[in-house]
Specification:
six-stranded antiparallel sheet; alpha+beta
Length: 183
């Protein structure tokens, strides 16, 4: 994650390419995708974009390019760790953001972390409002002792397509696209 954050903040050595930057355990097989600021509300109401994936370990990769001369993340992949070259399949959803930030997490694990820290209180809303977002990072309601939501800056508000990633004809992940950028 530090290499990607450094590239986005400094531009030194920036190449338009995929960067693996994080891993995500998906124990429930229920991937949530959306605006991190709404994660608590959507998870508490069983709402938002959710994609069924096989439980396991997933790698996160960001395609970094330039928009108006500045580095940005154009696409985000969540893919089974052992898959090397997935193919992009059909669009399966559309995910949106009002904060120019998009996040992914194991829906059940993050909801359990919110419940453990905040119970039935809406203090989670204040936690999310006060959270300091970097161009990419982890949102961890219980510090490094629990589940995490991995997020990236998208460059703008709005929605974008979510495509399935395939290997040997099976869904092995998703790819999110954040708009037209130089590649």
């Amino acid at each position: 994650m530090n290499e990607l954050l450094h590239l986005l903040q400094n531009e030194a050595g920036l190449e338009s390419r995929w960067y693996d930057f994080a891993s995500l355990p998906l124990e429930s097989g229920n991937l949530w995708i959306g605006d991190p600021g709404f994660s608590w509300a959507e998870l508490s109401s069983n709402d938002g974009v959710r994609v069924a994936l096989a439980p396991g370990q997933y790698k996160l990769s960001a395609f970094v390019s330039k928009a108006d001369g500045a580095p940005c993340i154009a696409r985000l992949r969540v893919c089974r760790s052992e898959v090397q070259s997935p193919t992009v399949g059909t669009q399966i959803a559309e995910a949106g953001t009002d904060s120019a930030t998009m996040g992914v997490c194991d829906a059940q694990s993050l909801w359990s972390a919110f419940e453990a820290r905040f119970g039935d209180s809406d203090e989670a809303v204040l936690f999310l409002e006060d959270f300091h977002y970097e161009p990419c990072g982890l949102l961890e309601p219980n510090g490094d002792a629990g589940a995490a939501l991995v997020y990236v800056a998208t460059g703008s508000d709005g929605g974008g397509p979510v495509y399935e990633l395939l290997a040997d004809g099976k869904r092995v992940g998703v790819e999110l696209s954040f708009g037209d950028h130089e590649e």
